[in-house]
């Protein structure tokens, strides 16, 4: 009987580890989803500024000045965009080029999110298998 109890404890420890891994993965997935939303927002803003400028309207946006504060500013040349390339590097691109770069990044992030989702599914299946195994070891279970 002590042997069964030890097996159940081992299963519980493995289950808890799976739970910790799943929670960490969910947090990472949240950060990836936030990055995808940020790409979408940047693409939309670039497109709106470019459209306003092409229509002869003043391209205007809000610029952060720190501590959650913004000022309104006119965009003199909405076709020049500085895009973060990663690893602390940025580059100036045309609006079209910036949107293409952001769309590529979004595609990469979406693929990463899909891989994370698959990993989360495997963790859930692993937890379910452990629960099934533990249920079989419980006294009175067949």
Question: What does this protein look like?
Answer:
- The protein is α+β, with helices and mostly antiparallel strands and 142 residues long.
- The chain has a single domain, classed as Helix Hairpins.
- It has helices spanning 2-54, 95-137, and strands spanning 60-66, 69-74, 80-86, 89-94.
- The strands form two sheets. Strands 1-2 form a two-stranded antiparallel sheet. Strands 3-4 form a two-stranded antiparallel ribbon.
- Strand 1 and strand 2 form a beta hairpin.
- Helix 1 (2-54) packs antiparallel against helix 2 (95-137).
- The model has no long low-confidence stretch (mean pLDDT 92).
For the biggest β-sheet, the strand order reads 1-2
What gross morphology would you assign? rod-shaped
Number of domains: 1
CATH class: Mainly Alpha
The residue fraction in helices comes out at 55-70%
Summary, kept brief:
Helices cover 68% and strands 18% of the residues. The chain has 142 residues and is of the alpha+beta class.
Looking at this protein, list some descriptive labels.
single chain, about 140 residues, alpha+beta, Helix Hairpins, two-stranded antiparallel sheet, about 20% strand
